[in-house]
């Protein structure tokens, strides 16, 4: 496919701010140019994306104060960049007890957190007999059943659960829906090529793109506010990166349920097969984020994790984001333990210095709470609206001495 001239590409980027989102051929050409010669495109791309982000969200960037609960770090997948997943005989192997979930959730609420972020390995009961027996002893056939009770325990302590539980069936999504304000699954990539031998997802059956698309589509059919996202730098091509963004856009057009899209950079970790693969450059991440804004449109909530790009927050703001994701004052990022969270005061200062207001949100975005009641079970909707103002932003929580600012 021949690339359009630079002048034509710039004009199509400018038009994406005022009219239809950026078309695929222009997005592919822009992504390829970003990889080859970022100085030829980055500045006008950032300018267009920042304007689009402002049209959709004004000068507000949001953040969710959370507690990170890695319910189990057992997983049947072995991604080439992951240190979260371990085997049962590892000294780091841990599955949280329900009392630990309750105690941690209680402490988090008192500290001003409002989100319980549940992350866990994919279907460890399939891979490990001992873990399967552990579940059965407690009356559970699947990890998702245990997760539902863990979310219920956290909800009872005043937090709003958000679960990232990997591939789930419609039945599992439906069972988790009453206990979660929102849920998520990083699409990461639509590249089936990365499942091939020697690639990042070769030993990860749950990273099969078709399965992740199916789970995300089912969440829309079941009216679940859902997070998706792209992982940049794991071996994908420029075209594959764009195709992932367009797949997310198509899923949202179909289900109306994608509440946020995360643009996340690969972070190399010692001891993994991809330990020596370089991180994507700041320019590539900013350009990819800007393209995501122009592909997904002004209204989409676009997020970049601040702990994975601590020296380029200002660049990401210029790329059109309107959210920093979850930041925990209590727990580390168990998926990327080498990347500490920024202090919230520092994040606020840097956001404000860039000309934006930092606002706290719940794990589900305000517009869903205020305008889309069909996305919640009755009890969850009641709890969410009791915790927010008429626009869906959180109000100070009773009983929490360090309640969120609004």
Structure, described:
There is one protein chain. The chain has helices spanning 6-18, 24-36, 42-57, 98-110, 124-127, 129-137, 143-156, 170-176, 209-221, 238-255, 282-296, 313-318, 344-353, 366-371, 378-386, and strands at residues 60-72, 115-120, 160-164, 182-184, 226-232, 258-265, 302-303, 323-327, 357-360. The chain is α/β, with parallel strands linked by helices. It has one domain (54-386): Aldolase class I (TIM Barrel, Alpha-Beta Barrel). Strands 1, 2, 3, 4, 5, 6, 7, 8 and 9 form a nine-stranded parallel beta sheet that branches. Mean pLDDT is 95; it is low at 402-406.
Question: Pairing-aware structural class of the strands and helices?
Answer: alpha/beta
CATH superfamily membership:
Aldolase class I
Q: Give the helices and strands as they follow along the chain.
A: HHHEHEHHHEHEHEHEHEHEHEHH
Number of helices: 15
**According to CATH, what is the topology?**
TIM Barrel
CATH class: Alpha Beta
Query: Taking Cα atoms only, what radius of gyration do you get, to the nearest Å?
Result: 20 Å
* Residue runs with pLDDT of under 50 for 5 or more positions: 402-406
Mean pLDDT: 95
Q: Main sheet?
A: 9 strands, parallel
Number of strands: 9
| Percent in strands | 5-15%
Shape: globular
CATH arch. level architecture: Alpha-Beta Barrel
Approximately how much helix is present in the residues?
40-55%
End-to-end C-alpha gap? 49 Å
Question: How many structural domains can be distinguished in the coordinates?
Answer: 1
Oligomer: single chain
């Amino acid at each position: 496919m021949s690339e359009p001239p630079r002048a034509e590409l710039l004009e199509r980027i400018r038009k994406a701010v005022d009219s239809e989102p950026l078309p695929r051929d222009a997005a592919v050409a822009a992504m390829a140019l970003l990889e080859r010669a970022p100085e030829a495109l980055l500045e006008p791309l950032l300018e267009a994306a920042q304007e689009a982000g402002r049209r959709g969200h004004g000068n507000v960037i949001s953040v969710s104060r959370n507690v990170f609960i890695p319910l189990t770090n057992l997983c049947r997948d072995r991604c080439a960049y992951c240190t979260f997943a371990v085997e049962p005989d590892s000294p780091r192997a841990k599955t949280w007890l329900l009392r630990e979930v309750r105690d941690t959730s209680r402490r988090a609420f008192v500290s001003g957190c409002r989100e319980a972020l549940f992350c866990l390995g994919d279907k460890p009961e399939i891979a490990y007999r001992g873990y399967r027996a552990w579940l059965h002893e407690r009356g559970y056939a699947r990890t998702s059943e245990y997760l539902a009770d863990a979310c219920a325990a956290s909800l009872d302590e005043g937090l709003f659960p958000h679960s990232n539980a990997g591939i789930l069936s419609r039945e599992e999504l439906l069972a988790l829906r009453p206990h979660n304000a929102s849920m998520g699954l990083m699409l990461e990539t639509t590249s089936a090529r990365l499942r091939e031998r020697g690639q990042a997802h070769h030993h990860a059956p749950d990273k099969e793109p078709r399965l992740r698309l199916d789970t995300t589509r089912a969440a829309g059919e079941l009216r679940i506010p859902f997070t998706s996202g792209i992982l940049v730098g794991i071996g994908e091509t420029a075209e594959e990166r764009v195709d992932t963004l367009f797949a997310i856009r198509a899923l949202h057009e179909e289900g109306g349920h994608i509440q946020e899209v995360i643009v996340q950079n690969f972070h190399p970790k010692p001891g993994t097969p991809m330990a020596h693969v370089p991180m994507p450059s700041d320019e590539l991440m900013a350009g990819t984020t800007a393209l995501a804004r122009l592909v997904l449109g002004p209204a989409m909530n676009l997020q970049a994790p601040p702990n994975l790009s601590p020296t380029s927050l200002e660049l990401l703001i210029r790329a059109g984001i309107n959210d920093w994701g979850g930041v925990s004052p209590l727990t580390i990022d168990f998926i990327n333990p080498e990347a500490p969270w920024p202090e919230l005061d520092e994040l606020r200062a840097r956001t404000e210095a860039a000309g934006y207001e930092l606002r706290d949100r719940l794990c589900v975005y305000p517009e869903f709470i205020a305008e889309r009641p069909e996305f919640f079970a009755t009890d969850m909707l009641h709890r969410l609206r009791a915790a927010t103002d008429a626009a869906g932003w959180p109000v100070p929580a009773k009983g929490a001495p360090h309640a969120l600012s609004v």
